[in-house]
Design brief:
The structure holds two protein chains of two kinds.
Chain A (H helix, E strand, L loop, with lengths): L1 E3 L1 H17 L8 E2 L18 H8 L5 E5 L3 H8 L8 E4 L10 H7 L4 H11 L8 H5 L1
Chain B lengths: L1 H14 L4 H4 L18
The chains are: A alpha/beta, B mainly alpha.
């Protein structure tokens, strides 16, 4: 799980709490990105992480659910040539919302804790049907 | 989770605010019962 922004970070941590309660065997890593340019190559920006460092944090083959306060495509553009980019699934602002509560706004854009849990269950292959009941609860 | 989404939407619609357990949620550090605290790799 990765996150950037205050509300997405809070929702990500809340999702992880649910995951740890409901699926205790699942190992989860949380990365809070405070400098977005760390995602890009060091040749493109001085804050960019080397491929080695990036891979050690985001792995080379594990699903990454990235919860973001801005448009999702930005994260994809910053990470497009990273090894694990094909496994990146980014949630972010989809221009949904009106006069809503904070959680309603998050749910409308699918960056809330519940949709993140569903995303994890859908994208971790070995969970499969074992965690299907959690999705419906 | 789908039921939780519907329930929280209904609560927000009815009360005009999120439920207390959502608004006042705080991360509690430390191990969760049943979780070994292991890392991914």
């Amino acid at each position: 799980m990765a996150c950037a922004g205050d509300i997405p970070t809070k929702e990500t941590l809340a999702a992880v709490e649910i995951l740890r309660r409901e699926i205790p065997s699942l190992k989860v890593r949380v990365l809070n990105v405070v400098k977005l340019f760390a995602l890009t190559q060091p040749s493109e920006h001085p804050h960019g992480l080397s491929d080695r460092d990036f891979d050690s944090l985001f792995t080379t083959d594990r699903p990454v659910i990235f919860n973001f306060h801005g448009y999702p495509w930005l994260i994809h553009r910053l990470t497009y040539n990273r090894t694990n980019h094909p496994n990146f699934h980014v949630r972010g602002y989809k221009e949904k919302g009106n006069i809503n509560t904070p959680l309603e706004l998050a749910m409308s854009n699918q960056i809330d804790r519940f949709n993140l849990v569903i995303d994890v269950i859908d994208r971790v292959p070995r969970l499969g049907s074992r965690a299907a009941h959690v999705k419906s609860e | 989770m789908k039921e939780a989404i519907l329930a929280n939407r209904a609560y927000a619609h009815e009360h005009g605010m999120d439920a207390d357990d959502v608004t006042n949620w705080r991360w509690s550090a430390g191990p969760t019962p049943g979780h070994d605290g292991g890392l991914l790799v």
